[in-house]
Write a structure and sequence with these properties.
Length: 284
């Protein structure tokens, strides 16, 4: 596996690969890799000639400085894991090179960024859109893989690709979970043993809501989920929403046969976690 730090080097390397007719798959990450990331990488390795992974803890998408400082960084172990799944190129740039000047770019995603992560993490999607645009320019992938765990991020990236005419196919890959249902996430590494057990409450809350879908009104389901989390020590619910899965707009009611997304964000101790479930109302 090639490990590349410099922007000029990755540009030259990718240009050469594209010119030789290779199909390029790309998995952007912030590192501290886990099985969720590895599945995205395996899918890319299977569906493309060359797989590139980026590891870059992007400062502009953190609305909370403490979250940025404490974000897990495990580069040596990450390199071993990348080799084990057949990744061809790791791009791990320095922030000074990605941001040669303070970023002044302003994106606007309209209603899509007015809810959930966009509402609760001001500036977050502007930082994501900025860095994803830069990474797409550097890597020039044919396909880019993103996890369903960050459902709103996938929708933002799809809108970005359309708005800027990037010639990139965006693939949404299903959420990979621990055996007890907790969605894998790099931030899980910051949970202590007790909090790690408690953290399954996000998934349990989504299951509880799913069981009531189509039987109880949306408002009642939301109140039930709020009460479920309110009873738990060290847990603070930020939002629970039932939304349309593409526009991410909250639904006041649901119809038979409709596809909906159940989305949740909550603090467990000081660690903020998110999760979601896609549900077809015909199947509940
Ligand atoms: N459990 C998972 N299943 C599938 N994809 C995942 C999972 N966790 C993360 N991803 C995807 O991996 C890519 C890189 O994510 P990132 O490096 O931020 O890791 P993360 O585990 O989401 O960490 P955190 O949420 O703590 O930032 C994103 O597209 C993300 O959606
Ligand atoms: C897409 C991404 C790598 C941009 O920094 C990040 O938001 C992530 O890891 O999901
Ligand atoms: N995995 C999404 C990136 C973030 O939470 O900042």
């Amino acid at each position: 596996m090639e490990v590349i730090e410099r922007v000029s080097t990755i540009r030259d390397h990718m240009k050469a690969l594209r010119c030789s007719g290779k199909r390029i798959g790309f998995v952007p990450t912030m590192g501290a890799l886990h099985e969720g990331h590895l599945q995205l990488l395996r899918a890319s390795a299977q569906e493309n000639d060359v797989t590139v992974c980026s590891i870059f803890v992007n400062p502009t998408q953190f609305n909370n400085p403490e979250d940025y400082k404490l974000y897990p960084r495990t580069m040596e172990k990450d390199i071993e894991l990348l080799k084990s799944v057949g990744c061809d190129v790791l791009f791990a740039p320095q922030a000074e090179e990605v941001y040669v000047q303070q970023s002044l770019l302003q994106f606007s995603f309209g209603p899509l960024e007015a809810v959930m992560e966009g509402e609760h993490r001001p500036g977050h999607f502007n930082g994501v859109a900025t860095v994803v645009s830069k990474l797409f320019h550097f890597v020039q992938p044919h396909r880019a893989y993103f996890g369903q765990k960050d459902l709103q991020q996938v929708a933002i990236v799809k809108q970005l690709v359309q708005a800027l005419n990037f010639d990139v196919e965006v693939v949404r890959y299903p959420t990979i979970r621990e055996e007890d249902g907790l969605a894998m996430s790099s931030r899980n590494k910051r949970l202590d043993q007790k909090q790690r057990q408690t953290a399954t409450i996000l998934h349990r809350a989504l299951q509880l809501a799913k069981d009531q879908l189509g039987q109880k009104p949306v408002y009642t389901i939301k109140v039930t989920v709020e009460a479920f989390l309110a009873g738990e020590d060290q847990v603070e619910l930020e939002y629970f929403e039932i939304v349309e899965p593409d526009t991410l707009q909250p639904l006041a009611e649901v119809q038979p046969g409709q596809e909906v997304a159940l989305c949740i964000a909550a603090f467990v101790g000081s660690v903020r976690l998110i999760d979601n479930l896609l549900v077809n109302l015909n199947e509940v």
